[in-house]
Automatic annotation (TrEMBL):
GO terms for molecular function: orotidine-5'-phosphate decarboxylase activity. Pathway: Pyrimidine metabolism; UMP biosynthesis via de novo pathway; UMP from orotate: step 2/2. This is Orotidine 5'-phosphate decarboxylase. GO terms for cellular component: cytosol. It is an enzyme of class 4 (lyase). It comes from the Archaea.
Length: 212
């Protein structure tokens, strides 16, 4: 049984609130990222969090440890309960995010293998496996691994074990189905197939049932 995370990559507060309200009761978390935050500012987090849903900041952080720690301070002060980081900047940068999240009572997730075709250039294969080991060693709460390549996500699961979560994008618009991936992961991340739907609440409900 996998959770359902909405990738709320819409622009503007009005649209974000419309979609999130329509999906109320169907979601386990909302993932926000640059499209929403650059169009609204971080104030949207407190607005969305009013419905008591965890908000995960997908900033795919990739910087030096000090900057990563400063980013964590802002993300958690804004009301987020999780943050997503890249791993390829190295173990010290990764550790700054994990420690920054935990110091603020939040969770840290590490991108290990991406879902799009271009991920095969770098963010896959042996690199991804190495990054999964690094995420485990750093004490991250979970990793991001692709629904579009379930066989790869299965390998990453074998590296991190069952005590860490896997959240998996690629379901819906990128072609993967919940049934392809749910047995390997703790949550599926769905964006366009929900927020571009004529009835986002109904679409979320259907994805939630299919992820069970
Ligand atoms: O369902 P979509 O394709 O509209 O949206 C997928 C979301 O997942 C979108 O927010 C992407 O930025 C994100 N994502 C990927 O699609 N692929 C990845 O490999 C990683 C992510 C992600 O969420 O990383 C944390």
């Amino acid at each position: 049984m996998a959770e359902l995370l909405l990738a709320l990559d819409v622009k503007g507060a009005e649209e974000a609130i419309r979609v999130s309200r329509a999906c109320e009761g169907e979601l386990d978390a909302i993932k926000i990222g640059y499209p929403l935050i650059l169009s609204t500012g971080m104030g949207i987090v407190k607005e969305l969090a009013k419905s008591n849903i965890p908000i995960i900041a997908d900033f795919k952080v990739a910087d030096i440890p000090n900057t990563n720690a400063l980013i964590c301070e802002e993300v958690f002060a804004a009301g987020c309960s999780g943050i997503i980081t890249h791993v390829f900047c190295g173990s010290d940068s990764l550790q700054a995010i994990v420690d920054g999240a935990h110091d603020h009572g939040g969770r840290a997730f590490a991108v290990c293998e991406m879902s799009h075709p271009g991920a095969l250039d770098f963010l896959s294969g042996a690199n991804a496996e190495r990054m999964a080991k690094m995420a485990k060693e750093a004490g991250a709460d979970g990793i991001i691994a692709p629904a579009t390549r379930p066989e790869r996500t299965e390998i990453l699961r074998s590296i991190i074990g069952n005590s860490m979560k896997i959240y998996s994008p690629g379901v819906g618009a990128q072609g993967a189905q919940p049934e392809d991936i749910k047995k390997y992961v703790d949550g599926i991340i769905v964006g366009r197939a929900i927020y571009e739907s004529a009835d986002p609440g109904k679409a979320a409900h259907e994805f939630r049932l299919r992820a069970l």
